[in-house]
Amino acid sequence: MSAHYFLVAVIADKVVGFTSLRDDGYLDYMFTHHDHQGLGIATMLLLNLEARAREIQLKEIFVDVSITARPFFLHHGYTIRERNIKIIKDVSFENAVMQKALS
Fold first, then answer.
1. Total number of domains in the chain
2. Cα–Cα distance between 80 and 99 in angstroms, integer?
3. Is the pTM of this model over 0.85?
4. DSSP letter at 23?
């Protein structure tokens, strides 16, 4: 985790969200506490993370996205690079690798 660039959202001394970016452009964490979802926290974190990626001259950001997070990333200009099915204890989960080219 020390190789990640982290952003943390705090309200009234409480962590309500965080995200991280590796130097290769991989967005590894995106979390908003359930009591604070729908308030724009994830969008603010993502926009700031994308600004950082541009500062370090990354050409793209890519991320493994669950089916429930997919609409958020689509809304912010990410596209599906590949779809995957992961099987954990005989239960299959659909996810996708999404990407966004930076200008």
1. 1
2. 6
3. yes
4. T
